Amino acid sequence: MRIAIGQLWQETNTFNRNATTLADFENWGVATGGDVIAKYGNTGELSGFLKEAKTWDGDVEFVGLARYVCWPWGAVDAATWRKIRDDFIAQLEAAGPVDAVFLALHGAMSAEGEPDVTGAILELARLTVGSDVPIVGSLDLHGNITPRMVANADVLVGYHAAPHLDAVQTGERSAKALRWMLEHRGQKPVTYWRKLPMMTAAENHNTFTGIPAPLYRQLEAFEREPNVLSAGLYMVMAWFDTPWVGWTALITTTENDRGLREKLDSFCDACWELRHVMEDVERLPAKELVDRALMVKGHPVVIGDGADATNSGSPGDATELLREFLSRESIPRGALTFMVDPQAVAVAKEIGEGGAFDAPVGGRYSPEFSTPVQVKGTVEKILDMKWTLTGHIGNNLPIDMGTGAVVHAGETTILLVERSGPGSSPVLYETAGLDPRNFGMVVAKSPSGFRADYGSFAAEILLADTDGCAPGNLQRLTYEHVHRPLWPLNPIASMEEARWTPAGYV
Ligand SMILES: [Zn+2]
User: Fold this and answer.
1) Engineering a disulfide at 229: which of 177, 289, 337, 486 sits with its beta carbon 3.0 to 4.6 angstroms away?
2) What is the pTM of this model?
């Protein structure tokens, strides 16, 4: 038996106007053919899928297609998207007949001229292998489900955890769903799905202890039913200004099951009822936030700057908080933050360790949200920012943020990096020899996922209300392409008022 495996993963923030290029993907490691499994078979969803499929009886041959992974950023440029598409098709054609296809995907990825990359790649796979070959796609629970995705995948399997600690298990669940199809050839699974005209602040997306936790326990209960292959709730990443953005609930079963369909309806009603409470987040403007942090006994106070979250595709160079830190005469134990700014890194390199730094920092990628701030300080260290992410989002995921420079300015320590990467992990700072546990205040550029890695040692966690490409306060942004009405951008009294969904009530 031959199973084709590929990965196409990026979360796109359409408010970040800087394109994701081929060089960006190459930095994260492009692979085709056998290299997909040889080099990346121990990472994330692929590792879980392979682990599970290797326990099956009989000869299973894994055929690598292509692996394109890139950290969240702006939409993929048209030429890169063409190359990705061509590579996947060429590899699928070269693979010859296969018995199944597994694609590890995100679900909220767009390219210039293609707002739904995930749906497009599933459609290409379907057109290439034909209607009888099972196709399973794994997704982030922030994916935006489209009719094209549902039409072309037999089963979509989404994360059940935010912070995303279940990439490996999602791969395993994908393999289990695929196994049923391989054992019941000729039987097509049935998918029920519904879109809800709502999107919500990511700060409240915690599925372990947060507001949606009971919904995700319900999904797990659905998946324990013998005829359910997959149950998912996709809370969508809100900074994805594309058509049909909204929450989606989806169940795939082995057969028609009216009862399950009714349960899905009740489940969707429960989701809709949560929309107001999901918006209940305390975010503080920069000045108020630093004042509050100074009053906290103990350290570190971990500050979630969701608007500049590199984990949500923001550039990671917003200067509002940095400017506030620099204006303070005293921050006991100091403040620690990072900035994605290759130009400032180049300046620091030129100056060298121990030299005096006096240059603008940040505010370059999204001038509509943020302007550079002049930083005067000392270059303490120049280093390579290569590390491995295990935790929220990644499992054995190799990270390369280029050259890093540690600049100390007054009460603030700034880690400058050339390229974006996980803003949710303390290992980012530790790689530069900076222990976030020792600081008074530490910035995590992530809306919610950072809690998985910082929660155990944070004296307190505060959330910032700042400008940027990924604010939790969605009213700060101007949406042009979403279908409306869409809550909370538009007031909606009842779902009946907003039956824009292409899926309708299935
Ligand atoms: Zn996500």
Assistant:
1) 177
2) 0.95
- Indicate whether 315 and 207 sit together in one domain: no
Instruction: Find the 331 Cα to ligand 1 centroid distance in Å.
Output: 33
Of the residues 218, 244, 278, which one is the last residue of a structural domain? 278
User: 236 and 136 in one domain?
Assistant: yes
Report how far ligand 1's centroid is from the alpha carbon of 127 (Å).
Answer: 28
> Distance from the CA of 436 to the center of ligand 1, in angstroms?
24
Judged by DSSP in three states, 185 sits in: coil
Give the distance, in angstroms, between the CA of residue 26 and the centroid of all CA atoms in the same chain.
Answer: 19
Domain count along the chain:
2
Verify that 405 and 459 share a domain, yes or no.
Answer: yes
Do residues 53 and 3 touch, judged by C-beta distance below 8 A? yes
Q: Ligand 1 centre and the CA of 500: distance in Å? A: 24
Give 162 Cα–ligand 1 centroid separation in angstroms: 7
Q: How far is the CA of 201 from the centre of ligand 1 (A)?
A: 12
Q: Which of 458, 443, 439, 159 is nearest to 306 (CA)?
A: 443
Left, alpha or beta for 240 (phi > 0: left; psi -120 to 50: alpha)? Answer: beta
Give distance in angstroms: CA of 192 to centre of ligand 1: 22
